[in-house]
Amino acid sequence: MKQSNRRTMLVTGANRGIGFEVSRQLGRAGARIILTGRVPQAVRRAVAALRQEGIDVRGELMDVSSPRSIHACARRLERSREAVDVLINNAGIYPEGTILSMPAEALYDALSVNFFGPFHAARAFLPGMIQRNYGRIVNVSSGYGSFAEGLEGPPAYSLSKAALNALTLRLASEVQGDVKVNAACPGWVRTRMGGPEATRGVEEGAVTIVWLATLPKTGPNGGFFRDRKRIEW
Ligand code: NDP
Domains in the chain and their CATH numbers? Predict the structure, then answer.
């Protein structure tokens, strides 16, 4: 087994949807998975399902809308000497409505989960990556967060993902050594968020995220990718 496959990889919002599938694919490739979510029972169920497949996985509670919850999880891992090599900021919410019709809270909520979650998680785990001279952060974004693609979709969501894209670029400019920060758009995927009409299954939706999580040293830093190809911010 390649050394890179034995990395410890933490996935947020991994109890279902794309995050669960990413955990499965990375686990099958040999990574140690820290599967996180905000509901204990949902985390336990997801961990049990992956263990049944022989995947090396442990569950941790992490509500990404709470900086306290993120840092508490980081401290638990530190105490158990579990170094996070790869962070996948996957957890996301999709509040609907137009700027004029939505309650202002919809934007606060979207920013809290889709932007401040990755912001605090990066601050919790990136310093250790830089210190150990290895790390990958994958921010699961969306074409709806791309200026180049017209910032489409519900505004609370698209504004939060545009902010996540900006965070990706700025974080990438602060890393050193073999540490990389990139963003991925999974495409339109059949999950609770994407709905049953979506054109892709979770296997396909996970591909670019898994690729960015396992980039070699020569791989890109500070990019936005769909189907493993660079797209415009
Ligand atoms: P789902 O709605 O299926 O899953 C979302 C996951 O995020 C769930 O595990 C959910 O947990 C978790 N989550 C939500 N809020 C929090 C929180 N506060 N703390 C921790 N976890 C939380 O969505 P997808 O799997 O489709 O989406 C995954 C990512 O992909 C998101 O970032 C999304 O924006 C992005 N994406 C998805 C697309 C699609 O078509 N599906 C398209 C483009 C991007 P719980 O079960 O507790 O609610």
Answer: 2-230 (3.40.50.720)
